[in-house]
Design a protein that fits this description.
By secondary structure, this protein is mainly beta. The strands form 18 sheets. A 6-stranded antiparallel sheet has the order 1-7-4-5-3-14, covered by helices on one side. Strand 56 and strand 57 form a beta hairpin. The radius of gyration is 58 Å and the shape is flat. The N and C termini lie far apart (169 Å). InterPro entries: Ig-like_fold, KIAA0319-like, KIAA0319-like_C, MANSC_dom, PKD/Chitinase_dom, PKD_dom_sf. This is PKD/Chitinase domain-containing protein. It comes from Oedothorax gibbosus.
Length: 982
């Protein structure tokens, strides 16, 4: 019995631990870590996926993984259980997914996979997994509604392809490079070239999205074997079967590996990919050829650099953020295979900053009856984005409740009087948070009593015996709730009343006499107000009104004010409804004011007799009129008083300036105005029309400076008076920012369209960071060449710049730089670009002439000719005349010395004589030599010859006179033979 127990115990130990010491077959599911909404980091490349049939909850799925020696991770997607055999710990670490599609996905890390020597991902299987998981979050970009639909369709028959769907790839028909290997482009219809990539005939797409050859038969029984979802490694892809003729050698499939998927994070942008193939069976040739191909890369022109594409190791550098997919093809004489590997380049990490919580408005006062307000927290800012808004109630009046939500705005409705305090907490994508407060004060409204208002007196005449009294002029700050009409107790006459509870009271069956009615109004607070209305009913009668224009008048100039025409003494039995004054006679038309009232005013009178007529009308349009005579006399003539309008200051540009002298006055009349220019005034500008002979002087064409104008006025008697006014014309406030540009276009043919196009092109050229607007000030032309000149300023329009003008010197610098690079940027040729006011500093050694825009240099300074003619062509005073003279003197000396040296050299080379050889002989006796000489040279003959005198003397050619004179006859010489001809 004991032996049997020992055997059973031994078998149990072997069963539990014999297969792998690192993977216990029994694990405590209560202590395992579960990650909700997560998937393996490597997706399909994480490892082998085995679908566990009949298991639809997390607990059973975890137990199934615990009982398997090859299972590392239990993965439950909705109700489908998978056991994952991981390639390495890095590929199977949990990745948090935010989409609704993965809301019901769970991962349980059961066993730790074996870690390779170069695998640094084992840290994800220690106790700090939660910390690492918090930083690995994948934001799904799928639409939530689409995810809900897909999630609802997943059932017990789901596969891994349902969890990681491959996006469709579009293509252009006729371009094979748009689709991958073993794919072709198929259009949706015959009229469109755009289509989708599909597998060619005989191939089907696997879960990795690669088209592979269809195997029609297999000895493997899929019905009885476990459901293996994915048997492909992301870095290991079997090559497709190659069909060859029977005479061709058999091509074996190589199992190729390109290594694990690589993840980099900038600024690291270099990596080396390595590929290897398993040894061929039966000792086949192992000399492999490698070829690396880029399958996909991030969008953009620069994709990086590849080196050693035909070697085992591929070196990558200058990678950009995004996903790269590479394919390596390994082949030999009788075997071939390929594999693919992904390189993910992540953007550089950034330093997270705490968000700034802002509530607008932070303090608000609400006065009833307004009962609603909104607190807006959307003005809160963060360097990335704010993912959570949380409102808190700190203080509210008793009895008020508010519904809080996690949105940027908080709506407060049906507020009651009191103080409200709220707190807003904001959290960013990295979990950093901040808060702020807001106060809301609700005040009670003040309710004032109503004011009853109806016409106090109403008069009607028979046969009219009905009338409507109007009480709608009554007012209240909150609104009137009710009206109530009633007859006063003082009225005993009978009358029919309709609408006593409304604003309008209709009365009928009225008789001659006086009626009194009382209107009472009540507001929403039951406060009341009353008023009385008297109704006079008179018998039918109409008498024409009696006009009375007043007594005749006699006035003496000068008048202290306007003449008063008083017709208030006019009367009517009922009422005068219209007044009309008019002038009938007089030496000059007078100016009548208030001519439609009972009292009118007349002005502009001169000596003479005037007659005015007053016509009055009653309600029945009956009328009458009255005349009044006015005699105007002048006892003495006072001179007029000139008023030129006072001093005035304006800023250019200004098309027209007005000097107003209409305030000049006279006791009778001013008959003549004369404007003249003071001799001390500037002479620029001109008078428009004949305005110098009118009260208002109009001027144009003014320039900056001070002008003096004298106004002289004359009356009828010839008396005159003068007044002087000064006009100060200042340069534009933004004159330093004005720019003038001359273009090669004739003013006679320059159209409005060309002007608009040129201004838009200038805005494009000057647009750098802030958008700009070119404001045209003036369009002018050169008086000699008729070329168009535009004067403009450039205004920045961004919120930060606040509409400030761009400095004119900066505008000119930018335009010159861009036009110097490419003069065809504008439709018209630019002749010159400069500021209106010369801003050239002339190198600090001169002044800029405001008219020619050229520098007038100081003494001992001059212009840099090379810069002005061949450089930026800017007028300057860079050169010192002293240094120029010194440099020129040195140059002249240098040139003279060089010329002299060349001349001497040429002379020496031309006139050099070959050196003669010296011949030496023994010296003879002097007598012998004399005799020898006498043989050849006759006596008293002069001969010329070149002699070599001695060794120490130089070789020189000279002429010598040889004459032999003797005293008598030499011994031994006869006189007959004295001359010997040689």
């Amino acid at each position: 019995m004991a032996k049997i127990f020992v055997l059973l115990l031994f078998s149990l130990v072997i069963t539990c631990f014999g297969r792998n010491d690192h993977y216990p077959l029994i694990c405590d599911t209560s202590v395992l870590e579960t990650y909700k909404g997560s998937t393996p980091y490597g997706n399909l490349t994480a490892g082998y996926y085995y679908k566990v049939d009949g298991v639809h909850n997390l607990e059973d799925c975890t137990k199934a993984c615990c009982s398997s020696i090859t299972c590392h991770v239990a993965f439950l997607f909705n109700t489908v259980c998978f056991s994952i055999q991981c390639y390495n710990a890095s590929a199977c670490r949990p990745l948090k997914r935010t989409g609704k599609k993965h809301e019901h996905s769970y991962m349980v890390l059961v066993h730790n996979p074996s870690i390779d020597a170069d695998d640094e991902a084992g840290i994800f299987w220690d106790g700090n997994t939660d910390d690492k998981l918090s930083s690995d979050v994948f934001l799904d970009e799928d639409d939530d509604e689409a995810n809900d639909e897909v999630t609802g369709q997943l059932s017990f028959k789901s596969t891994v392809a349902d969890i990681y769907p491959l996006p469709p790839k579009s293509c252009l028909y006729g371009l094979d490079q748009d689709c991958l290997e073993n794919e072709e482009c198929r259009t949706k219809n015959t009229r469109s070239r755009t289509g989708m990539c599909h597998c060619i005939k005989g191939y089907e797409r696997n879960s990795r999205g690669v088209c592979q050859k269809v195997h029609l038969s297999s000895s493997y029984d899929y019905a009885t074997s476990p459901s293996i979802v994915n048997r492909e490694n992301s870095a290991t892809k079997n090559s497709t079967d190659a069909t060859a003729p029977s005479t061709a050698p058999l091509i074996h499939k190589l199992v190729v590996s390109a290594g694990d998927n690589v993840t980099l994070q900038l600024p690291e942008n270099e990596v080396t990919l390595s590929a290897y193939a398993l040894k061929q069976p039966e000792g086949e040739d192992g000399n492999y050829k490698y070829e690396w191909t880029l399958i996909s890369h991030p969008e953009g022109d620069e994709t990086g650099t590849m080196q050693d594409q035909n070697t085992k190791n591929l070196k990558l550098s200058k990678l950009r953020a995004g996903l790269y997919t590479f394919k390596v093809t390994v082949s030999s004489a009788n075997a071939a295979g390929d594999a693919m590997v992904n390189v993910t380049v992540l953007s550089p990490e950034r330093e997270n900053k705490v968000p700034v919580a802002i509530i607008q408005p932070s303090n608000v006062t609400v006065k009833l009856p307004n009962k609603d307000t909104v607190l807006d927290g959307s003005f809160s800012t963060d360097d990335d984005k704010i993912v959570k808004y949380q409102w808190e109630v700190l203080e509210v009046p008793i009895g008020y409740s508010v519904q809080l939500n996690e949105t940027p705005t908080l709506q407060l409705k049906n507020l009651i009087p009191g103080l409200y305090r709220f707190k807003l907490n904001v959290t960013d994508s990295k979990g950093a948070w901040n808060f702020t407060f807001a106060n809301v004060t609700v005040q009670k409204e003040t309710d004032y009593p109503p004011t009853a208002n109806a016409k106090s007196e109403v008069v009607i005449y028979l046969p009219q015996n009905e009338v409507t009294l109007n009480g709608n002029l009554s007012t209240d700050d909150k609104g009137i709730k009710s009206w109530e009409w009633k007859k006063s107790p003082d009225t005993d006459k009978a009358v029919d009343m309709e609408g006593t509870n409304g604003p309008y009271l209709h009365l009928s069956q009225l008789e001659v006499g006086v009626y009194k009615f009382i209107l009472k109004v009540t507001d929403t607070a039951d406060q009341t107000s009353t008023t009385e209305v008297h109704l006079f009913v008179k018998p039918e009668s109409n008498v024409a009104p009696v006009a009375n224009a007043g007594p005749d008048q006699k006035v003496t100039l000068p008048l202290q004010g306007p003449l008063i025409l008083n017709g208030s003494a006019s009367k009517d039995d009922i009422k005068i409804v219209k007044w009309a004054w008019e002038q009938v006679a007089g030496p000059k038309p007078a100016v009548l004011s208030f001519a439609n009232t009972s009292i009118a005013k007349a002005e502009g009178l001169i000596p003479g007799n005037y007659q005015f007529k007053l016509t009055v009308y009653d309600e029945k349009k009956a009328f009458s009129f009255s005349l009044v005579n006015v005699s105007v006399i002048q006892t003495e003539n006072l001179p007029p008083r000139a008023n030129a309008g006072g001093d005035k200051t304006i800023y250019l540009p200004c098309d027209m300036v007005v000097m107003n002298g209409s305030l000049s006055s006279d006791d009778v009349e001013i008959v003549k105005y004369q404007w003249t220019r003071d001799p001390a005034s500037l002479a620029a500008g001109y008078t428009i029309g004949l305005s110098d002979q009118t009260p208002v002087l109009k001027l144009a064409g003014l320039v900056s400076g001070r002008y003096l104008f004298r106004l002289t006025v004359f009356d009828l008697q010839g008396a005159s008076s003068s007044d002087t006014a000064s006009l100060i014309v200042k340069s534009p406030r933004d004159i330093m920012d004005e720019v003038e540009i001359m273009v090669n276009a004739d003013m006679k043919s320059f159209s409005q369209e060309q002007e608009d196009t040129l201004l838009r092109q200038l805005e494009i050229l000057l647009h750098d960071v802030d958008p700009v607007i070119v404001n045209l000030i003036k369009l002018d032309f050169d008086r000699h060449t008729k070329r168009v000149i535009l004067f403009f300023t450039v205004e920045r329009t961004s919120m930060i710049s606040g509409g400030r003008l761009m400095p004119g010197f900066e505008v000119v610098t930018r335009l010159r730089k861009k036009l110097r690079t490419d003069s065809s940027l504008l439709d018209v040729q630019v002749i010159s670009v400069d500021t209106v006011v010369c801003q050239n500093k002339c190198s600090g050694h001169g002044d800029c002439d405001p008219y020619s825009k050229h520098c007038v240099c100081e003494a001992f300074w001059m212009q840099d000719l090379f810069r002005y003619n061949f450089g930026d062509k800017e007028s300057n005073c860079d050169w010192s005349i002293l240094y120029v003279i010194i440099v020129c003197f040195i140059l002249v000396l240098t040139l003279a010395g060089g010329f002299w040296s060349v001349t001497c050299l040429l002379s020496r080379m031309r006139y050099r004589k070959p050196k003669k050889r010296h011949r030496y002989t023994l010296l003879d006796d002097i007598n012998d030599r004399e005799r020898e000489r006498e043989k050849f040279f006759p006596i008293a003959k002069t001969q010329k010859n070149s002699l070599m005198t001695s060794d120490s003397e130089s070789d020189a050619v000279f002429e010598s006179t040889l004459s032999v004179k003797t005293n008598g006859i030499s011994n031994g010489v006869h006189k007959e033979s004295r001359n010997i001809n040689a």
